[in-house]
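Question (not urgent): is this output format expected?
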Amino acid sequence: MPMSIVAVTVDCQDPRTLAEWWATATGGEIAADYEFYVALSTPGGLTMGFQRVDDPTPGKNRWHADFKAADRAAEIERLTALGAREVGTHTVPGLTWTVLTDPDGNQFCVSSDH
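Got this back:
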């Protein structure tokens, strides 16, 4: 039997604060808070974890989450109002996506509904 994904976990210095930001961004809710690790349940069924580490990896994260939205531009506007920072927008035939960072600098993408 192949493995299955359980959660995506982000190393950070303040798990509760970052989990609350992502809860607002995704419409999810905090499912568990162990102080050093906070789990967030998202409406899409993915669990996002936020784990306290003394020294988060510097620079660009090596992998990231991709989200889609029916109205990408409106979602980008909403997320930047919450504190996300827009990095850039890219287009290939049939797909447009925008790279953003959360308040801790972790990159994620929002694409057009496809």
